[in-house]
Amino acid sequence: MNNKNLYAAISAAFPADRSGVAVESADSSTGATLKRYSWHALDEQTARIANLLASLNLPEGSRVAVQTEKSVEALMLYLAVLRAGYVYLPLNTAYQAAEVEYFVGNAEPAVVVCSPKSLSWIQPIAQAAGVARVFTLDDAGGGTLAESAAGHSATHTIAEKQADDLAAILYTSGTTGRSKGAMLSHHNLLSNALTLKDYWGWSSIDVLIHSLPIFHVHGLFVASHCALLSGAKMIWFSKFDPNAVIARLPDATVFMGVPTLYVRLLGDARLSRELCKNMRLFVAGSAPLLIETFNDWRERTGHTILERYGMSETAMLTSNPYLAAHGERRGGTVGFPLPGVQVRVSNDKGAACPINEIGGIEVKGSNVFSGYWRMPEKTKEEFTADGWFKTGDVGKIDERGYVVIVGRSKDLIISGGYNVYPAEIEGYLNDMPGVAESAVIGVPHPDFGEAGVAVVVAKADSALDATAMLAELKSKIANFKVPKRVFIVSDLPRNAMGKVQKNLLRQEHARLFV
Hints:
The chain is α/β, with parallel strands linked by helices. It is built from 15 helices and 25 strands.
Protein backbone atom coordinates (compact mmCIF):
# COMPACT_ATOMS: atom_id res chain seq x y z
CA MET A 1 0.00 0.00 0.00
CA ASN A 2 1.64 3.22 -1.17
CA ASN A 3 -0.80 5.50 0.63
CA LYS A 4 0.20 5.55 4.31
CA ASN A 5 -3.01 7.25 5.41
CA LEU A 6 -4.36 5.45 8.49
CA TYR A 7 -7.86 5.54 7.00
CA ALA A 8 -6.62 3.71 3.91
CA ALA A 9 -5.61 0.79 6.15
CA ILE A 10 -8.85 0.95 8.13
CA SER A 11 -11.09 0.94 5.05
CA ALA A 12 -9.06 -1.87 3.46
CA ALA A 13 -9.96 -3.99 6.49
CA PHE A 14 -13.72 -3.52 6.01
CA PRO A 15 -15.49 -6.82 5.15
CA ALA A 16 -15.98 -7.63 1.47
CA ASP A 17 -19.71 -7.61 2.15
CA ARG A 18 -20.26 -4.10 3.43
CA SER A 19 -23.95 -4.59 4.17
CA GLY A 20 -23.20 -6.09 7.58
CA VAL A 21 -23.42 -4.09 10.82
CA ALA A 22 -20.25 -2.17 11.68
CA VAL A 23 -21.60 -0.20 14.64
CA GLU A 24 -24.77 -0.59 16.64
CA SER A 25 -25.68 2.37 18.81
CA ALA A 26 -27.38 1.30 22.02
CA ASP A 27 -29.33 3.04 24.75
CA SER A 28 -26.90 3.95 27.53
CA SER A 29 -29.39 3.10 30.26
CA THR A 30 -30.99 -0.11 29.02
CA GLY A 31 -28.67 -1.42 26.29
CA ALA A 32 -31.52 -1.56 23.78
CA THR A 33 -30.56 -1.11 20.12
CA LEU A 34 -31.16 2.40 18.79
CA LYS A 35 -29.68 2.28 15.29
CA ARG A 36 -27.48 0.08 13.13
CA TYR A 37 -24.77 1.42 10.82
CA SER A 38 -23.42 -0.78 8.03
CA TRP A 39 -19.83 -0.76 6.83
CA HIS A 40 -21.18 0.76 3.64
CA ALA A 41 -22.87 3.60 5.59
CA LEU A 42 -19.66 4.19 7.55
CA ASP A 43 -17.69 4.56 4.34
CA GLU A 44 -20.29 6.79 2.66
CA GLN A 45 -20.74 9.20 5.55
CA THR A 46 -17.00 9.59 6.13
CA ALA A 47 -16.71 10.34 2.40
CA ARG A 48 -19.35 13.08 2.62
CA ILE A 49 -17.66 14.73 5.60
CA ALA A 50 -14.23 14.40 3.97
CA ASN A 51 -15.61 16.05 0.82
CA LEU A 52 -17.09 18.84 2.93
CA LEU A 53 -13.70 19.47 4.56
CA ALA A 54 -11.96 19.37 1.18
CA SER A 55 -14.42 21.95 -0.18
CA LEU A 56 -13.21 24.45 2.43
CA ASN A 57 -9.79 24.61 0.71
CA LEU A 58 -7.95 24.29 4.01
CA PRO A 59 -4.15 24.55 4.13
CA GLU A 60 -2.13 21.33 4.17
CA GLY A 61 -1.88 19.91 7.68
CA SER A 62 -4.87 21.88 9.02
CA ARG A 63 -6.14 20.88 12.43
CA VAL A 64 -9.79 20.05 13.09
CA ALA A 65 -10.65 20.56 16.77
CA VAL A 66 -13.60 18.57 18.07
CA GLN A 67 -15.49 18.91 21.36
CA THR A 68 -18.74 17.01 21.00
CA GLU A 69 -20.71 14.39 22.88
CA LYS A 70 -19.97 10.79 21.96
CA SER A 71 -21.94 9.44 19.01
CA VAL A 72 -21.35 7.16 16.04
CA GLU A 73 -21.35 10.30 13.89
CA ALA A 74 -18.52 11.70 16.04
CA LEU A 75 -16.51 8.55 15.24
CA MET A 76 -17.29 9.11 11.55
CA LEU A 77 -16.03 12.69 11.87
CA TYR A 78 -12.71 11.40 13.24
CA LEU A 79 -12.38 8.93 10.37
CA ALA A 80 -13.33 11.63 7.84
CA VAL A 81 -10.61 13.97 9.12
CA LEU A 82 -8.04 11.19 8.61
CA ARG A 83 -9.52 10.37 5.22
CA ALA A 84 -9.31 13.99 4.06
CA GLY A 85 -5.67 14.18 5.21
CA TYR A 86 -6.11 16.68 8.03
CA VAL A 87 -5.12 16.49 11.71
CA TYR A 88 -7.65 15.44 14.34
CA LEU A 89 -7.66 17.30 17.67
CA PRO A 90 -10.07 15.77 20.23
CA LEU A 91 -11.00 17.88 23.25
CA ASN A 92 -12.38 16.54 26.53
CA THR A 93 -16.08 17.37 26.82
CA ALA A 94 -15.49 18.62 30.37
CA TYR A 95 -13.18 21.44 29.25
CA GLN A 96 -14.51 24.91 29.99
CA ALA A 97 -14.05 28.22 28.14
CA ALA A 98 -10.59 29.14 29.48
CA GLU A 99 -9.23 25.67 28.66
CA VAL A 100 -10.72 25.58 25.16
CA GLU A 101 -9.41 29.08 24.54
CA TYR A 102 -5.88 27.83 25.31
CA PHE A 103 -6.17 24.75 23.07
CA VAL A 104 -7.65 26.70 20.15
CA GLY A 105 -5.05 29.43 20.53
CA ASN A 106 -2.19 26.95 20.73
CA ALA A 107 -3.23 24.53 17.98
CA GLU A 108 -4.76 27.16 15.66
CA PRO A 109 -7.30 24.80 14.08
CA ALA A 110 -8.87 25.68 10.74
CA VAL A 111 -12.16 24.05 11.77
CA VAL A 112 -13.89 23.62 15.12
CA VAL A 113 -16.79 21.20 15.68
CA CYS A 114 -18.74 21.53 18.92
CA SER A 115 -22.01 20.54 20.55
CA PRO A 116 -24.90 22.90 19.71
CA LYS A 117 -25.28 23.72 23.41
CA SER A 118 -21.67 24.99 23.50
CA LEU A 119 -21.83 27.08 20.33
CA SER A 120 -22.69 30.33 22.14
CA TRP A 121 -19.38 30.39 24.01
CA ILE A 122 -17.14 28.44 21.60
CA GLN A 123 -18.02 30.55 18.55
CA PRO A 124 -16.50 33.77 20.00
CA ILE A 125 -13.35 31.90 21.06
CA ALA A 126 -12.99 30.43 17.55
CA GLN A 127 -13.61 33.77 15.85
CA ALA A 128 -11.05 35.53 18.06
CA ALA A 129 -8.49 32.88 17.08
CA GLY A 130 -9.22 33.25 13.38
CA VAL A 131 -10.83 29.82 12.91
CA ALA A 132 -12.25 29.57 9.38
CA ARG A 133 -15.36 27.50 10.13
CA VAL A 134 -17.34 26.32 13.16
CA PHE A 135 -19.80 23.43 12.84
CA THR A 136 -22.09 21.73 15.34
CA LEU A 137 -22.69 18.03 15.95
CA ASP A 138 -25.16 16.81 18.58
CA ASP A 139 -25.34 13.48 20.39
CA ALA A 140 -27.93 12.17 17.90
CA GLY A 141 -25.71 12.95 14.89
CA GLY A 142 -27.54 16.10 13.88
CA GLY A 143 -26.28 19.68 13.57
CA THR A 144 -24.74 21.90 10.94
CA LEU A 145 -21.93 19.43 10.18
CA ALA A 146 -24.39 16.73 9.12
CA GLU A 147 -26.53 19.25 7.24
CA SER A 148 -23.55 20.61 5.32
CA ALA A 149 -22.12 17.16 4.60
CA ALA A 150 -25.44 15.86 3.24
CA GLY A 151 -24.99 17.82 0.02
CA HIS A 152 -21.63 16.27 -0.79
CA SER A 153 -20.73 13.13 -2.72
CA ALA A 154 -20.69 9.74 -0.96
CA THR A 155 -17.51 8.78 -2.82
CA HIS A 156 -14.09 10.19 -1.99
CA THR A 157 -10.51 9.41 -2.92
CA ILE A 158 -8.52 8.97 0.28
CA ALA A 159 -5.90 11.71 0.66
CA GLU A 160 -2.33 10.59 0.05
CA LYS A 161 -0.25 10.74 3.22
CA GLN A 162 3.24 9.71 4.21
CA ALA A 163 3.89 7.52 7.25
CA ASP A 164 5.36 10.39 9.28
CA ASP A 165 2.59 12.88 8.42
CA LEU A 166 0.65 14.12 11.42
CA ALA A 167 -2.67 12.35 12.06
CA ALA A 168 -3.67 13.63 15.50
CA ILE A 169 -2.69 15.94 18.33
CA LEU A 170 -3.64 14.86 21.85
CA TYR A 171 -3.24 17.36 24.65
CA THR A 172 -1.96 15.94 27.90
CA SER A 173 -3.91 16.61 31.06
CA GLY A 174 -1.67 19.45 32.18
CA THR A 175 -1.62 18.54 35.88
CA THR A 176 1.88 20.02 36.15
CA GLY A 177 1.95 23.18 34.08
CA ARG A 178 0.22 23.99 30.81
CA SER A 179 -0.98 21.19 28.58
CA LYS A 180 1.26 19.89 25.82
CA GLY A 181 0.03 18.66 22.44
CA ALA A 182 1.46 15.22 21.65
CA MET A 183 1.90 14.87 17.87
CA LEU A 184 1.01 11.40 16.58
CA SER A 185 1.65 10.33 13.00
CA HIS A 186 -0.32 7.95 10.78
CA HIS A 187 2.46 5.38 11.30
CA ASN A 188 2.51 5.84 15.10
CA LEU A 189 -1.19 4.99 15.29
CA LEU A 190 -1.34 2.29 12.63
CA SER A 191 1.72 0.35 13.81
CA ASN A 192 0.38 0.27 17.37
CA ALA A 193 -3.14 -0.73 16.33
CA LEU A 194 -1.89 -3.59 14.14
CA THR A 195 0.31 -4.83 16.98
CA LEU A 196 -2.63 -4.85 19.41
CA LYS A 197 -4.92 -6.50 16.85
CA ASP A 198 -2.51 -9.42 16.53
CA TYR A 199 -1.35 -9.58 20.15
CA TRP A 200 -4.89 -9.60 21.56
CA GLY A 201 -6.24 -12.09 19.01
CA TRP A 202 -8.81 -9.90 17.26
CA SER A 203 -10.91 -11.25 14.38
CA SER A 204 -13.98 -10.30 12.36
CA ILE A 205 -16.27 -12.37 14.61
CA ASP A 206 -15.46 -10.21 17.64
CA VAL A 207 -18.03 -7.81 19.09
CA LEU A 208 -16.71 -4.93 21.19
CA ILE A 209 -18.72 -3.15 23.86
CA HIS A 210 -17.52 0.45 23.43
CA SER A 211 -18.47 2.54 26.47
CA LEU A 212 -15.34 4.72 26.76
CA PRO A 213 -15.03 8.40 25.80
CA ILE A 214 -13.52 9.09 22.37
CA PHE A 215 -11.42 12.13 23.25
CA HIS A 216 -8.70 9.89 24.71
CA VAL A 217 -6.22 7.23 23.54
CA HIS A 218 -8.09 4.35 25.19
CA GLY A 219 -11.47 4.86 23.54
CA LEU A 220 -10.53 6.61 20.31
CA PHE A 221 -7.41 4.70 19.29
CA VAL A 222 -7.11 1.42 21.22
CA ALA A 223 -10.74 0.32 21.21
CA SER A 224 -11.94 1.80 17.90
CA HIS A 225 -8.86 0.95 15.85
CA CYS A 226 -8.72 -2.68 17.01
CA ALA A 227 -12.36 -3.25 16.02
CA LEU A 228 -12.18 -1.36 12.72
CA LEU A 229 -8.95 -3.03 11.59
CA SER A 230 -10.49 -6.43 12.36
CA GLY A 231 -13.78 -5.83 10.60
CA ALA A 232 -15.39 -6.42 14.01
CA LYS A 233 -18.73 -5.03 15.14
CA MET A 234 -19.00 -2.43 17.92
CA ILE A 235 -21.90 -1.98 20.35
CA TRP A 236 -21.69 1.76 20.91
CA PHE A 237 -22.73 3.46 24.15
CA SER A 238 -22.61 7.24 24.48
CA LYS A 239 -21.58 6.73 28.10
CA PHE A 240 -20.98 3.91 30.56
CA ASP A 241 -23.84 2.54 32.62
CA PRO A 242 -23.46 -0.82 34.38
CA ASN A 243 -27.08 -1.79 33.70
CA ALA A 244 -26.68 -1.30 29.95
CA VAL A 245 -23.33 -3.12 29.79
CA ILE A 246 -24.71 -6.02 31.83
CA ALA A 247 -27.58 -6.27 29.36
CA ARG A 248 -25.24 -6.56 26.36
CA LEU A 249 -22.40 -8.71 27.74
CA PRO A 250 -24.02 -11.90 26.33
CA ASP A 251 -23.85 -10.33 22.84
CA ALA A 252 -20.18 -9.34 23.03
CA THR A 253 -16.70 -10.86 23.08
CA VAL A 254 -14.49 -7.92 24.15
CA PHE A 255 -14.85 -5.16 26.76
CA MET A 256 -12.40 -2.37 27.52
CA GLY A 257 -12.67 -0.16 30.58
CA VAL A 258 -10.92 1.90 33.19
CA PRO A 259 -10.74 0.28 36.66
CA THR A 260 -13.69 2.32 37.94
CA LEU A 261 -15.95 0.63 35.37
CA TYR A 262 -14.96 -2.81 36.60
CA VAL A 263 -15.67 -1.81 40.20
CA ARG A 264 -19.13 -0.60 39.20
CA LEU A 265 -19.87 -3.79 37.27
CA LEU A 266 -18.80 -5.86 40.27
CA GLY A 267 -21.37 -3.92 42.28
CA ASP A 268 -24.14 -5.49 40.18
CA ALA A 269 -25.31 -8.85 41.55
CA ARG A 270 -26.19 -10.03 38.02
CA LEU A 271 -22.52 -10.20 36.98
CA SER A 272 -21.68 -13.88 36.72
CA ARG A 273 -19.77 -16.54 34.82
CA GLU A 274 -22.90 -17.40 32.86
CA LEU A 275 -23.37 -13.78 31.80
CA CYS A 276 -19.76 -13.63 30.54
CA LYS A 277 -19.65 -17.04 28.86
CA ASN A 278 -19.35 -15.55 25.34
CA MET A 279 -16.66 -13.05 26.35
CA ARG A 280 -13.03 -13.77 25.47
CA LEU A 281 -11.24 -10.62 26.68
CA PHE A 282 -11.56 -7.92 29.32
CA VAL A 283 -8.93 -5.15 29.09
CA ALA A 284 -8.19 -2.52 31.76
CA GLY A 285 -6.03 0.58 31.58
CA SER A 286 -5.73 4.38 31.93
CA ALA A 287 -5.43 4.07 35.73
CA PRO A 288 -4.04 1.49 38.19
CA LEU A 289 -6.18 -1.61 38.77
CA LEU A 290 -6.43 -2.60 42.43
CA ILE A 291 -5.42 -6.21 43.11
CA GLU A 292 -8.71 -6.65 44.95
CA THR A 293 -10.65 -5.73 41.79
CA PHE A 294 -8.40 -8.04 39.74
CA ASN A 295 -9.08 -10.97 42.08
CA ASP A 296 -12.80 -10.28 42.58
CA TRP A 297 -13.35 -10.11 38.81
CA ARG A 298 -11.66 -13.45 38.24
CA GLU A 299 -13.69 -15.08 41.01
CA ARG A 300 -17.03 -13.67 39.82
CA THR A 301 -16.66 -14.09 36.05
CA GLY A 302 -14.00 -16.73 35.53
CA HIS A 303 -12.08 -14.22 33.39
CA THR A 304 -8.72 -12.68 34.24
CA ILE A 305 -8.54 -8.99 33.35
CA LEU A 306 -5.71 -8.10 30.98
CA GLU A 307 -4.03 -4.94 32.25
CA ARG A 308 -1.92 -2.87 29.88
CA TYR A 309 0.01 0.42 29.93
CA GLY A 310 0.14 3.33 27.54
CA MET A 311 0.23 7.10 27.24
CA SER A 312 -1.09 9.90 25.05
CA GLU A 313 2.42 10.27 23.62
CA THR A 314 2.88 6.60 22.74
CA ALA A 315 -0.46 4.75 22.62
CA MET A 316 0.11 1.25 24.07
CA LEU A 317 3.52 0.21 25.36
CA THR A 318 3.09 -2.98 27.38
CA SER A 319 0.46 -5.66 27.91
CA ASN A 320 -0.10 -8.69 30.04
CA PRO A 321 -0.18 -11.79 27.84
CA TYR A 322 -3.31 -12.69 25.91
CA LEU A 323 -2.23 -16.26 25.25
CA ALA A 324 -1.47 -18.52 28.21
CA ALA A 325 1.53 -19.85 26.28
CA HIS A 326 3.13 -16.41 26.64
CA GLY A 327 2.72 -16.31 30.42
CA GLU A 328 0.12 -15.55 33.07
CA ARG A 329 -1.75 -12.28 33.52
CA ARG A 330 -0.29 -10.98 36.77
CA GLY A 331 -2.24 -8.57 38.94
CA GLY A 332 -0.27 -5.50 39.95
CA THR A 333 1.74 -5.53 36.73
CA VAL A 334 1.21 -4.18 33.22
CA GLY A 335 2.88 -7.14 31.55
CA PHE A 336 5.64 -7.21 28.96
CA PRO A 337 6.74 -4.71 26.29
CA LEU A 338 4.61 -5.15 23.18
CA PRO A 339 6.30 -6.45 20.01
CA GLY A 340 8.31 -3.61 18.49
CA VAL A 341 8.43 -1.65 21.76
CA GLN A 342 11.52 -1.35 23.94
CA VAL A 343 11.26 -0.53 27.65
CA ARG A 344 14.05 0.21 30.07
CA VAL A 345 14.30 1.52 33.63
CA SER A 346 17.00 4.09 34.44
CA ASN A 347 18.19 5.75 37.62
CA ASP A 348 18.58 9.51 38.07
CA LYS A 349 22.11 9.31 36.64
CA GLY A 350 20.89 7.68 33.43
CA ALA A 351 22.29 4.23 34.20
CA ALA A 352 20.21 1.07 33.75
CA CYS A 353 18.56 -0.20 36.92
CA PRO A 354 19.06 -3.81 38.02
CA ILE A 355 16.09 -6.20 38.16
CA ASN A 356 13.44 -5.07 40.69
CA GLU A 357 15.12 -1.71 41.29
CA ILE A 358 12.82 1.29 40.91
CA GLY A 359 13.67 4.00 38.40
CA GLY A 360 12.34 6.09 35.56
CA ILE A 361 10.62 4.22 32.71
CA GLU A 362 11.93 5.05 29.22
CA VAL A 363 10.60 3.70 25.94
CA LYS A 364 11.37 3.45 22.24
CA GLY A 365 9.37 2.19 19.25
CA SER A 366 7.46 3.08 16.11
CA ASN A 367 4.46 4.02 18.24
CA VAL A 368 6.34 6.78 20.10
CA PHE A 369 5.35 10.31 19.11
CA SER A 370 7.65 12.79 17.39
CA GLY A 371 7.30 15.54 19.97
CA TYR A 372 5.09 18.23 21.46
CA TRP A 373 3.28 20.72 19.23
CA ARG A 374 5.30 23.92 18.98
CA MET A 375 7.40 23.02 22.04
CA PRO A 376 10.84 22.03 20.67
CA GLU A 377 12.64 22.70 23.95
CA LYS A 378 10.15 20.66 25.98
CA THR A 379 10.40 17.88 23.40
CA LYS A 380 14.18 17.86 23.71
CA GLU A 381 13.93 17.64 27.50
CA GLU A 382 11.69 14.59 27.33
CA PHE A 383 14.02 12.48 25.19
CA THR A 384 17.39 11.05 26.22
CA ALA A 385 20.52 11.69 24.19
CA ASP A 386 20.20 8.21 22.68
CA GLY A 387 16.59 8.73 21.61
CA TRP A 388 14.48 7.15 24.38
CA PHE A 389 11.29 8.91 25.55
CA LYS A 390 11.19 9.59 29.29
CA THR A 391 7.63 8.65 30.22
CA GLY A 392 7.63 10.39 33.59
CA ASP A 393 6.43 7.11 35.13
CA VAL A 394 8.37 5.37 37.86
CA GLY A 395 8.56 1.60 37.97
CA LYS A 396 10.60 -1.55 37.80
CA ILE A 397 11.01 -4.72 35.75
CA ASP A 398 10.82 -7.88 37.82
CA GLU A 399 12.79 -11.10 37.50
CA ARG A 400 10.29 -12.53 35.00
CA GLY A 401 10.29 -9.44 32.78
CA TYR A 402 6.94 -8.02 33.91
CA VAL A 403 6.77 -4.23 34.11
CA VAL A 404 5.41 -2.79 37.37
CA ILE A 405 4.34 0.86 37.55
CA VAL A 406 5.01 2.45 40.92
CA GLY A 407 3.72 5.94 40.12
CA ARG A 408 4.47 9.18 38.34
CA SER A 409 7.82 10.87 38.92
CA LYS A 410 5.92 14.05 39.82
CA ASP A 411 4.16 12.05 42.58
CA LEU A 412 7.46 10.97 44.13
CA ILE A 413 7.76 12.22 47.71
CA ILE A 414 11.23 13.17 48.97
CA SER A 415 10.91 13.28 52.74
CA GLY A 416 14.00 14.03 54.81
CA GLY A 417 16.15 13.08 51.83
CA TYR A 418 14.49 9.68 51.38
CA ASN A 419 12.47 8.68 48.31
CA VAL A 420 8.92 7.59 49.12
CA TYR A 421 6.82 5.98 46.36
CA PRO A 422 3.10 6.60 46.95
CA ALA A 423 1.97 3.41 45.18
CA GLU A 424 3.86 1.30 47.70
CA ILE A 425 2.12 2.97 50.65
CA GLU A 426 -1.24 2.83 48.87
CA GLY A 427 -0.76 -0.92 48.47
CA TYR A 428 -0.51 -1.39 52.24
CA LEU A 429 -3.46 0.92 52.88
CA ASN A 430 -5.67 -0.80 50.30
CA ASP A 431 -5.01 -4.17 51.94
CA MET A 432 -6.41 -2.97 55.28
CA PRO A 433 -9.93 -4.13 56.22
CA GLY A 434 -12.61 -1.62 55.31
CA VAL A 435 -10.47 0.40 52.84
CA ALA A 436 -11.98 0.86 49.37
CA GLU A 437 -9.09 2.88 47.91
CA SER A 438 -6.45 5.42 48.85
CA ALA A 439 -4.20 8.13 47.50
CA VAL A 440 -0.90 9.20 49.06
CA ILE A 441 0.50 12.64 48.25
CA GLY A 442 3.44 14.77 49.31
CA VAL A 443 2.93 18.27 50.72
CA PRO A 444 5.42 20.90 51.95
CA HIS A 445 6.85 20.33 55.43
CA PRO A 446 9.17 22.72 57.34
CA ASP A 447 11.43 19.96 58.71
CA PHE A 448 11.34 17.20 56.09
CA GLY A 449 10.91 19.24 52.92
CA GLU A 450 7.92 17.08 52.06
CA ALA A 451 5.69 14.87 54.16
CA GLY A 452 3.30 12.14 53.10
CA VAL A 453 -0.44 12.52 53.54
CA ALA A 454 -2.88 9.65 52.96
CA VAL A 455 -6.42 10.26 51.74
CA VAL A 456 -8.53 7.13 52.22
CA VAL A 457 -12.02 6.09 51.12
CA ALA A 458 -13.87 3.60 53.33
CA LYS A 459 -15.96 0.75 52.00
CA ALA A 460 -19.71 0.99 52.48
CA ASP A 461 -20.73 0.30 56.10
CA SER A 462 -17.09 0.40 57.27
CA ALA A 463 -15.68 2.74 59.89
CA LEU A 464 -11.99 3.54 59.67
CA ASP A 465 -9.71 4.78 62.43
CA ALA A 466 -6.92 7.00 61.11
CA THR A 467 -4.78 6.55 64.23
CA ALA A 468 -5.02 2.77 64.06
CA MET A 469 -4.16 2.82 60.37
CA LEU A 470 -1.00 4.83 61.03
CA ALA A 471 -0.02 2.41 63.80
CA GLU A 472 -0.47 -0.55 61.47
CA LEU A 473 1.67 1.12 58.79
CA LYS A 474 4.44 1.76 61.33
CA SER A 475 4.50 -1.96 62.09
CA LYS A 476 5.01 -2.86 58.43
CA ILE A 477 7.17 -0.22 56.72
CA ALA A 478 10.09 2.08 57.47
CA ASN A 479 9.08 5.08 59.54
CA PHE A 480 10.16 7.60 56.88
CA LYS A 481 7.56 6.09 54.53
CA VAL A 482 4.65 6.42 56.98
CA PRO A 483 2.34 9.37 56.18
CA LYS A 484 2.17 12.10 58.79
CA ARG A 485 -1.61 12.29 58.51
CA VAL A 486 -4.51 10.14 57.30
CA PHE A 487 -7.79 11.67 56.15
CA ILE A 488 -10.95 9.61 55.67
CA VAL A 489 -13.10 10.92 52.79
CA SER A 490 -16.19 9.81 50.85
CA ASP A 491 -14.48 9.77 47.46
CA LEU A 492 -11.36 10.84 45.55
CA PRO A 493 -11.33 13.46 42.78
CA ARG A 494 -11.00 11.89 39.32
CA ASN A 495 -10.69 13.05 35.74
CA ALA A 496 -12.86 11.77 32.90
CA MET A 497 -10.72 8.64 32.46
CA GLY A 498 -10.98 7.65 36.10
CA LYS A 499 -7.50 8.74 37.15
CA VAL A 500 -7.21 10.17 40.64
CA GLN A 501 -6.33 13.87 40.41
CA LYS A 502 -3.57 14.03 42.98
CA ASN A 503 -2.80 17.61 41.98
CA LEU A 504 -6.17 18.64 43.48
CA LEU A 505 -5.40 16.74 46.69
CA ARG A 506 -2.00 18.42 46.89
CA GLN A 507 -3.64 21.83 46.50
CA GLU A 508 -6.20 21.02 49.18
CA HIS A 509 -3.58 19.99 51.75
CA ALA A 510 -0.71 22.26 50.66
CA ARG A 511 -0.71 24.32 53.87
CA LEU A 512 -1.26 21.46 56.30
CA PHE A 513 2.21 21.73 57.86
CA VAL A 514 3.29 25.27 56.94
